[in-house]
Structure formats: C-alpha cells, structure tokens
Amino acid sequence: MRRLRACLGAVAAVGLAAAGTTALIAGSASGATSALANHWYAAAPYLMPLDNDPPDAAAIMDATGLKAFQLAFVLAPNGGGCSPTWGGTAAVSSDTAVQSVVNTIRAKGGDVSVSIGGYGGTKLGQACSDPAATAAAYQQVITKYGLHAVDFDLEEPEYENTAAIKNEIGAAKILQQNNPGLYVSVTTAGTADGTGWFGKQMLLEAKSQGFTPNNFSIMPFDGGFNGAASQTGALTNFNQILQSTFGWDQATAYAHEGFSGMNGRSDTGEYFTQADFQTVLDYATGHHMDRFTFWSLNRDRQCTPADNGGRTSGTCSSVAQNSWDFAKYSVKFAGVTPPTSTPTPTPTPTPPGTGCKPAWSSTAVYTAGNEVSYGNHNWKAKWWTQNETPVASDWGVWQDEGAC
C-alpha cells in the first residue's frame, strides 16, 4: 500500500524469552508496550477500526483467544500530500479514535499491526516523492502507535505504478533497518498461477533492492477461485515463483510465504466456508508457512435478512456461521486452541435473489455502489463510469452480483 525516520524517539531492541523473537519498544502516545511473538502478527486478521460497523475487539479476544489485529488502512490524504491518514480522511497525527482501539487491545494483553494501502484510495507510495519521504510518513505511524508490525498491502491500482512500488519497497526496507525487530509483511493479489504480472514485478523490485520481509502473502480470491483446492494450488504455484525469483529452496520459500483469504462471499461471488479455511490452514501449517490471515473481522459474523446475505457485504460474511468463527482459524495458526463453542453447520450457499435491478443504460452516469442489470445478471459499480458495458473482469468497473 512507506517510511523513513531521522530520529526514532525511544527505541530499543529487547528479547522475548518465551517467544525467542526480537521485539521493538517505541515511545508513543499510548506509552511503551512489549511485542507479542511473531506468530501472532503472522496470524492477525484485518479489522477496519473506523468503518464497516467495527466490532468490539475486546469481545473478539474474549470469545476466541485472539491477541493480534491488523488495522486497515493507512493512505495518503484525499486532498493530496505525503502524510499518513486513516482511509484518506482522518490524520494519524491527531487521531484518538484508533488509538483508543489500540489501547483497549493492549490492555487485554494483545497488540496491533497496521496495514498500509489496500484496494482504492491514494497510497503514500504514489503521493510521496521518493522512498525516504515515503518511509518518513510511515514512521509517523510506527512512532504514534508504538508498532511492532506493519503490512504493505500492494495491489490494484498502485502496483501497476512502477515508481510507487519502488517507493513502497524502498520505504519498507528503510523501516526494517530503522526499527529493529519490526515484523513486515507484504500482501498482494493472488491468481491461479500464484500472482500476476504486476505481483511478479513487485517481487523483482524487492530483489533488486535487497529487501526481504518476513513474508510475501497472496490473496487467492476475486480471481476465479472456487474453494480451498484452488487456493492451495495458487499457494503452491506462488511458492515456485518465490523460489525462482529469490533462488530459495522450497522450504525457505514457504517460510517467507503467506496466505490472506476472504471469509464467506468474496467480491466476485466466490464462497469460502469454514471448511475451506480449515483446509488452507492445514496446508499452511503443514508447509510451515509464515502467515495466515483474512479479510476481515468486520465480516466475521452472520448476515441478517436485512443485510441481504446473498450479497457481498463489508459487515457480514453471507455464509452460515457463529460470530468470530473465522477468527478462530487465525488463533489456531498462532498455535493456540480457541475456546470451544457449538459449531454452526455450513450449508451450500444460496444464490442471490432473482430480482433484477434497473437495466443498464449506456448514457447514464453511475458511481460506486450503483446497481444495474445486464445480460440477466445484476452488477455493481466499483467507481464512476459511463458507457462501460457490464462484463466480468478482475480489473473492470463492474462487479458481477450473480444471475437475476
């Protein structure tokens, strides 16, 4: 989805005896805090703390045993500039809302990582002049929250911008050097072949800069996937890409590989159930992969009829589940047994309702969220468009919502 810093405040590396990892202690508004073991940052699911009906992090911790959260997303300001914000609108420098969430999690013995980038919005790698300036912006986030982990979510459309990716990878390397023990993950799009052309170019940029994060994670969804078998196949192929790019053997590649899934119904109408997550978890642990996470905790609850569970939602999964079912797979990846509860059987997902939206018009202007019907399918606009025929495409303006 950056960071330099000329002066780190109070930063010191300490050893965590129980975990055998290096921790970063940083001065911040919330005071110094000890790091968790790296396997917790590797298992942290995504949580939007300001959007998509944020769930109570403390309640999730109590129900599942989860200790780490991946807070999303830090972006450049919507109005321009090289300074960090939450979602393009809330300046990190003056934030109190996210800080409150962080404090709540830490008070219960947990911690957070922060994800930079994501899909949509202007990324700091696009807005800042060079890797050093990009890193300086991200360092503000690290120092503000006393972070021990960060995630670079490099995807559409930023990863098509060579200069932006150079800034992001360069910033990640600077942050890694200036913050001893910082856990760094790099997340990018997944395809059946592992990752696409732009993902491979990003890996080559990392190689050319001599940058190795804790892991490179792919997101095997929204690309024609169908359940766990297609996802584990993509992970196998991505492992081979890591081997060929960096000259690693298979085991070393798996030790630097991660999975970032989507629970329930994906943006393109794929379904990933609890059983799929268990299969991928078994693959990840069996191959000693470094990371297992998902998007998102905001969606880790069952839809109500009013939510229209047959559609993709930012606040529920559209599959039958108990609240926080999917979070428990992250807990298992971290090596902890979650509390027991009565599981909810996962039935075959029912298709969306058969009602068709108003017919698409070539002359009408549509903005993000507008819905139309075309070719006996319903479609949702991802951004502003006019005279673009609805068609299934990973990168197109229209999202297929299924037959009507």
Please specify the SSE layout and strand pairing:
Layout: E1 11-16, E2 21-26, H1 38-41, E3 46-47, H2 57-64, E4 68-75, E5 85-86, E6 90-91, H3 97-107, E7 111-117, H4 124-127, H5 131-145, E8 149-153, H6 162-178, E9 183-189, H7 197-209, E10 215-219, H8 228-246, H9 250-255, E11 257-262, E12 264-265, E13 271-272, H10 274-286, E14 291-295, H11 327-333, E15 365-366, E16 371-374, E17 377-381, E18 385-386, E19 398-403
Parallel strand pairs: 3-4, 4-7, 7-8, 8-9, 9-10, 10-11, 11-14
Antiparallel strand pairs: 1-2, 4-5, 5-6, 12-13, 15-18, 16-17, 17-19
Helix pairs in contact: 5-6, 6-7, 7-8, 8-10, 10-11
Describe this structure in words.
The chain has helices at 38-41, 57-64, 97-107, 124-127, 131-145, 162-178, 197-209, 228-246, 250-255, 274-286, 327-333, and strands at 11-16, 21-26, 46-47, 68-75, 85-86, 90-91, 111-117, 149-153, 183-189, 215-219, 257-262, 264-265, 271-272, 291-295, 365-366, 371-374, 377-381, 385-386, 398-403. It has 11 helices and 19 strands. With 404 residues, it is an alpha/beta fold. The longest helix has 19 residues, at 228-246. The protein starts with 10 loop residues before the first strand and ends with a strand. Helix 6 (162-178) links the parallel strand 8 (149-153) and strand 9 (183-189). The strands form 5 sheets. Strands 3, 4, 5, 6, 7, 8, 9, 10, 11 and 14 form a 10-stranded mixed β-sheet that branches. It has a 3-stranded antiparallel β-sheet with strand order 16-17-19, with no helix packed on it. Strands 1-2 form a two-stranded antiparallel sheet. Helix 5 (131-145) crosses helix 6 and helix 10 runs parallel beside helix 11 (327-333).
